[in-house]
Amino acid sequence: MVKIRRTPGAALAAGLAALVLVAPAAAGRAQAAAPRAASGLPLGAYNLPETRRTSDLAPGVTWTHIERGRADANDRWTVEVDLLRDEDAARALADRLAKAGFPPTVTRVDDRPQDLPSSLPWGWRVRVGSLTEKAAAAQLVQKLRTAGFNPSRTYFTGEDGRGRSGSGPWVVDVLKVDAAHRDRVRARQSLDRVPGAETVAEMVKRTGGIAGINGGYGSDEEDGTFGDMAGLSVINGELVSEAVNGRSALVLPVDPDRRPSVRQFTTDLRVRSEDGADREVDGINRQPGKIRNCGGVGGDLPTERPLHDVQCTDDSEIIQYTGFFYGPTHEGAGAAAVVAKDGTVLELRDHRGGAVPAGTTLLAGTGDGADWLRDHARPGSVLTVTKDVNDAASHRSLRALGDGPADIVSGGPQLLRDGRVEIPSEAEGFDHPDDPGFFDYFSTHRHPRTIAGVTEDGSLLLITVDGRRPGYSEGLSFRESALVARSLGAVDAINLDGGGSTTMVVGEKVVNRPSDATGPRQMATALIVR
Questions:
Q1: DSSP SS3 for 213
Q2: How many helices (H) and strands (E) does the chain have?
Q3: How many Å apart are CA 290 and CA 223, to the nearest integer?
Q4: How far apart are CA 53 and CA 483, in angstroms?
Q5: Which of 167, 288, 320, 496 has a 20 to 30 A CA-CA distance from 102?
Q6: Rounded to whole angstroms, how far apart are CA atoms 424 and 283?
Q7: How far is CA 94 from CA 98, 127, 281, in A?
Q8: Could you give phi then psi for residue 16, rounded to 5 degrees?
Q9: Do the bridges between strand 185-189 and strand 525-529 make them parallel or antiparallel, or are there none, so unpaired?
């Protein structure tokens, strides 16, 4: 049995271990937290109450549960009608609301992407109502719609991301794998197949893990292929999903002597025929024409830049389905080539879709991609597919950099670089140019968050922060996430999928409180400690 000591204001020492629940035989003694500064986590007022509970779960692995702050009786439910770039437009909206019997408030918003600096305000926020119950705010939304307005969402004011001015509360769970034991961590794809998804608890159990957290952003049925990563995924050196080009990812080298890292990546995928024809491959293990979070190649619309929670489209693609894809491929007009391991074309189909025979891959084409396959993928000919994962800064492949095989899970944006808060929200697609409210909501407001960090000595931190639960835990903004990760010892950190996806499992138990009313979600990927 693991004994746990509650320590008011106890801290994570640099050696605080991380992710994992281990089999009972591996579980060890409870560990008292090291002395810390009285401020604790950098959230809310300096002297807020904070408790930490730390348990040794396996050699070099610990789990720390942190509770900080208290509910603020002044926080209320409100309705955000809009966030507008132009102050005059915001004032005009406020006038219309007042005349309709909805007294508004208008506030200036200055928080903006760190990599899009300006002295100008980000916009002007128009809100209505100050209510004690969420249900009353929902009723106010209906009244506003009946009156001809289009409110964007309800808010609990404690989730406004006010930094040191708020009182919380916050609930943070930290799993740490000491550098000497990081060979225990792998980024594992759900079922090792796409599509197909499981809860984190199911993945931990199936892989024999001790603990796990959710991984990066995934696609859904409407915007892609459920179970596919919406971004870069590499498992033991094999590319499973192409990058959202320029986005950050967490690299976990298979060689335990190489430290984890957070970097930005691109992928370069090509197919070449024996007659010398060459064409790009647009993606891997996803439905042709649907590019979740954008950041693709080949003329995608509306952009080839990353754009979070947006589906870009392309009617002329070649998609490769590999052994990681489970079940029949996506049916549709076009062409498809079944390719043996040695590159020999075994079959050329006059349509997309169908099964992928064991030991083969399938190249599915639409538009001019289908034309290319008809012209160059004749049965008996040989196709060569090359797939490079490139460091976006150096433009060099991981092979050239000598990193060797790795597990890579995409996220975004980066939060810390060399100990500095560095959050390229604009470059990584978290600003929608025509909608200032998207960045404001997604980045500067508090939500459940999942964070991965790397310490100075190469230890791995896996952090979940509960949110959307007034009175229990308010969540974090991007900047608060960076500051929390740094206070726990990270020098590099990345934001992973959060919101209702934020999940931590220790043993067979979900130890945090996922925010969805339906409980833990199914995930495309997870980070498993085993």
A1: strand
A2: 7, 34
A3: 6
A4: 20
A5: 167
A6: 24
A7: 6, 8, 50
A8: -55, 125
A9: antiparallel
Q: What single-letter DSSP state applies at residue 472?
A: T
Q: What is the pLDDT of residues 365-422, one digit of tens each?
A: 999 999 999 999 999 999 999 999 999 999 888 776 666 788 999 999 999 999 999 9
- DSSP, collapsed to helix, strand or coil, labels residue 485 as helix
Q: Are 272 and 310 in contact (CB under 8 A)?
A: no
Percent of the chain topping pLDDT 90: 77
Instruction: Judge whether 197 and 218 are in contact, CB under 8 Å.
Output: yes
* Cα 403 → chain centroid: 23
- Distance set, CA 1 to CA 28, 56, 401 (Å): 8, 11, 45
Largest CA distance in the chain: 75
Instruction: Find the distance separating the first CA and the last CA of the chain, reported in whole Å.
Output: 19
Cβ atoms of residues 247 and 232 within 8 Å = yes
d(CA 368, CA 68): 57
Other CB atoms within a 10 A radius of the CB of residue 276 amount to 7
The secondary structure of 445-505, three-state, reads CCECEEEEEEECCCCEEEEEECCCECCCECCECHHHHHHHHHHCCEEEEEECCCHHHCCEE
Handedness of CA 326, 327, 332, 338 (dihedral sign): positive
- Does the N-terminal peptide bond of residue 302 adopt cis geometry, omega within 30 degrees of 0? yes
Instruction: At 451, list the tokens.
Output: 């964070």
Pairing between β-strand 306-313 and β-strand 290-294 as defined by DSSP bridges: antiparallel
Residues 111-132 have pLDDT tens digits of 999 999 999 999 999 999 999 9
List 51's β-bridge partners, or say none: 8, 67
Residues 64, 128: Cα–Cα separation, whole Å: 40
Instruction: In whole angstroms, give the CA distance from residue 525 to residue 213.
Output: 9
Residue 89 dihedral angles phi and psi, to the nearest 5°: -65, -40
Which residue intervals of 132-262 are DSSP H helices?
Answer: 134-146, 200-206
CA dihedral 313, 319, 324, 327 (to 10 degrees): 80
- Identity of residue 225: T
Question: DSSP string of 67-90?
Answer: EE----TT--EEEEEEEES-HHHH
Cα–Cα distance, 65 to 226 (Å, whole number): 32
E strand segments, 95-159: 104-109, 123-131, 153-156
**Rounded to whole angstroms, how far apart are CA atoms 413 and 100?**
41
